[in-house]
Every structure is written in structure tokens, then in C-alpha cells.
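Hey, can you fold this?
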Amino acid sequence: MTTSRARWIALVVLCIGTLMTILDETIVNVALPVMQEELGFSPAGVSWVINAYLIAYGGLLVFAGRLGDLLGHRRVLLIGVAIFTAASVSAGLSPSAILLVVSRFGQGVGAALITAVTLALIVTMFSEPREQTRAIGFYSFTFAGGGALGLLLGGVLMQIASWQWLFFINVPIGLVSLIVGWRLLPRGRGLGLGRGLDVAGAALLVSAVSLLVYGVITAEHLGWGGATLLTLGGAVILLLGVVVRQRRASVPLLHLGVLRDRDVAGANVVQFLVTGGLYGSFFIATLLLQQVLGYAPMQMALAFVPLTIVTAVASIVVAPFLTARFRERITLVVGLLGFLAGALLLARVPLDGGYLADVLAPLLLLGLGIGIVLPPIMGLAMSKAGEDEVGAVSGLANSTGMIGGAFWTAVVASLIGAVAGARGDAAGEEREALAQGLSAGSLAIAAVLVVALAVAFVVLRRRSDPAAPTASIADARAAG
């Protein structure tokens, strides 16, 4: 990596590769009914097209980040791209439900390897504070805009092609990412497996997070009763085992001392809350547009285009500008206030609401808030990562966000169902009842964002020097 131009080209490739993994969280949603009919899924079984991906993805993030530290971040990313691309081919060619679910699990494995080390590579390539802030802004947009782009791209592909192309589209992206990544990403041998891979700790961690993700994503269908609580309780016990193991291991997967830093711990808590608000608000807006306002799938996808554009501008332009002037804490508060305003306006969309009069403003505020919030969160989460654990810390930040997104979406979905069910018993009132449930869900998202604001005010440090670096890994290139 010798030139600034090459670094930015490599960043674009990293963001496109990550965007590919984010798209696959939502792009298949529009095709689930067709997959169910053609491959013989049961009504409950078709949800595993989503669940298999999320369980593998969420469960492996921290472990994948540690592998990056030991084997080299570039090497692990390229392996992840290869696995994801191969699994995409397998998914597109799947003749049965079982093979599709297995392929989706493989995609989740590849996605975890890609996502866990991408942020580590970015903060390694861009050590100068202002460049790093801009680079993280580009990367943040892949998360904030990826869900909306997935809905749009999925709707387009289902209009002009079959569901198989939802997976085949990943193949050229993956091949280009492999070629360009091989040539331009910083090379490095990593620390080496001889430095120690805590196999027992890894097994505990992967089991704990996978069980936690499974409990959360199935709570929407099973409820929050005995089975769900038993699953989540088992996950908590395993997580306690992870803490004990990490304290005793000679070379832990992740030094828990990094979480003693207020900025790192606070950023991960805010990440858990804000990503929940992100996915929860997308979930609510999708149901509002389709089932309350009567939008067709393509109309709904196009309705998200302004949000995606504003998110891009906010992540790439506004957030770096505010961070350079006011530092991460103030930037985060500004973004959270915009996000909160969007959630509150979303709760007030009437039954006969029009797009320009009632829907566009909350979507624009959501996009603005999301775009401003994510870059400072990621910068703070990585701010104390040493060169021997930058991948593991990156994996932790991504895992926190992924679990938060799944958890708060499940909570919001349960709340919407409870409110709509209580108010929609009379014939012909289902639409109004759903609207009331979505309003309650939006207010719940707003409450989550208020908690995030409180954490930002109370936990995060005030920083007076705009030129101070956001990461302490300026010499991490050698770790690759």
C-alpha cells in the first residue's frame, strides 16, 4: 500500500465487500414466499433462510476478528470473500430447502470473516485522524444504507429475474473484491498462531453468541416465554463462562481490560442501542408503507431511496465535518437527536398519510441521524485497540451492533403484535390496529434512542482537541 489513491481504491473494495454481506441480510426478504413455494419450505421453516445466515454471522464475529490478528487481516478477509462467493453460488443453485439453508449458513461464515476484519484494515490503512474519520464514514454508510439498498435491489431483481439471482449477483462482486483486494490491501503475516489461539475460549464464545442470536431472532415467533428465556439464560451462562475463561487464559481472544475504557465501553453500548434503532425503524417503516399505506414492493423500495441518499451524505460528508470541529461525543449527540426526531415523526404518520406530506420527513431525519451517528461510534469503539487485538476489537464492535439489531427488532415486533392484537379484534379494524402497533413500536425505538443519548452524555469523555487521533494503532500496518 504505497499511495493515497491505492488506499482509497482499496477502501471502496472493502466497503463494497461489506455491503454485499449487509445486503444479504435483507435482500432475500422479498423472495421468501417464492422460495417457500418452489423449494417446499414449511411456513415456519422458511424463516431459516434468514436465521441460518444471522446465527453464523453473529456467532463468529469476535472469533473471526481474532483470527485476523493471528493470520493477517488481509488473508482472513480474502478467505471470507471466497467462502461467501462460493456459498452464494451454492445458494443460487440449491435444488432443495436443506441445501439452501446450509448455503446461507456458509454465507454467514464468510460474512463474519469479511466484516470482522474490515474495520481493522481501515484503521490500519488510514492512521491520520482526519483521513481515518472520512474512511470510517464511507464504511459506516455500508451499514446504514445497506438495508435499504437490499430492499430496493431485491425488489428490482424479483421484477426482472428469479430469486436465484439474489445470490448470483454476489459472484462478480466477490471476484472483483478478491482480485483488487489481493493487489491493494496491506500485506502482513499477522501475529502467528504461535502467539496462541484460545480454542476453549473460542468454542465458548461462538456457542454463547450463536445461542444468544438464535434466542433473539426466534423470540418474534415463539414469544418471550419459557423456551426463549431458557435459550437466553443458557446464552448468559455461556457468556459468563467466556468472561471467566478470558481472565484465566494466558493469551485470551480479547483482553477484557479494553472495556474498562469509558469511550470503548460507551461506544459499544450505544452501538447496541443505535443499531437496534436502525433495524427496528426499517422494520416499522417497511410494514407502514406496505401494510398500512398500501405500497407495492417496488414502490416501497423506491420510497427508501431519499433515505439512502441522505444517509450517504451524512456519513461521508456531515459526520467527518462535525467530528473534525466538535469531536465524536458532540457529533454523536447531534446524530441521535436527528434520529430521535425521525422516530417520533414516524409514530405520527396517519392512516391516510401521503408520501410527501407525512412519510418523507421522518425518512429523511432517520437517514440523517443514522448517517451522522455511526461513524463516531465506530471510531470510539476502535480508539484503544492495540495492534495485537485490533481485529478482535473490530469483531466485538460489529457483534455488539448485530446482536442489538436483532434484539431490538424482535422486541419491537413483539410490541407491535401485542398492541395490534389487542386493538384489532373487530372485523375491518386490522389496518388501524396495525397502525397503532407501529406507532407504539416507533415510540419504543424513540425510548431506546433516549437511553443512547443518556449513555453518550454520561459515559463518553469530553474531548477538547479536534486533532487528537481516534485510534491508537498508527503503527498497526505491520500486523496486516
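Oh, and this one too while you're at it.
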Amino acid sequence: MPTDLTPVIAASTRWLLAAYPPPAGALSRALADAQARQATALAAALCYPTSLDVQLLHLLAPSGSHRLDWLTGCEPHPDDTDTAWRTWVDETVVSWAACLLADPALAARANQALATTEHHTEAGGLQRLTHPSTRDSEATALLRHPDLLEPIAVLHRPQLVELLTAEGAGLS
């Protein structure tokens, strides 16, 4: 049974970039992709902290993008035949990633909580997420805008905040 979060991270990142696109240009696209990927990787690691959790995710499948598409109006074009990736979008991961993107201080707390998961060595550096530069912020004007992210972030923010303030996370 797979214990890899890559499909969920990739699909959730792709969904975030489709819903909140970066400005034109290859550099903006790359910077936005890096930040969205860091946010979804951190969110996925916190949401599915053990290999057993990941195995259950693969067995039961993620929630897909239907509800997120409906909330944001980011539904696929009827002529788009490449929609299979949308089945790997995880609503909780996207919601938590939206929370992390909108609030770098929360992202820093989540990064500390990452040490309590089995994925703590897989996340890599999260500098662009936790301490975005001016150029990073310009590339993600929509992706980090708290008001725009709110309909998605509010879906599962209470669970993320509870996780990050729990004694077991070592952050209280």
C-alpha cells in the first residue's frame, strides 16, 4: 500500500493555482507554484501524520475538488478532458494550505508541529511559505489574499488551529 502523499500534494497545488492564478510570467508562476506546493505539503503532512493515515487515504481516496470548485466557481471547462487529477484534491489539505498561505505566522507554527509527524524529513525547506520575500508576495497576490482565501480556509480552520494548539503538538 502506498505511503506517499505526492498525488494529493500535486493535485491540491494544481487546484490552488487554478483557483488563484499568479500574474503572467514564468518567474511568477514558479514562485507561486513553490509556495502553493510548500503549503500543501505541510498541510498534507499534518493532516495525514503517519504512514497508516496515508495508506487509509489511498484506500478510501481523497474528497475531490467538487465542493471547492462550487465554492470558488473554479469548475473545469466543459471541453477540458484532463480532469482526473481533480479526484486527488483533498478538501482538508486545500483548506489548511489556504490558512497557511494567508497567515505566515500560522505557517511557522505549523512548521514546528511538523516535527511530530512521520513526514518531518520529507517537507524540505519552507522559507517561501513562512517568510515570503517581496517577490514571493507579488507572485502570490491572489494566492495569499486572506479575503479571497476565506471561503476555503474557513472550511477546516478550526481543526487546524486545534491541532496546532494541542499539547501533543508541543505548541501550547
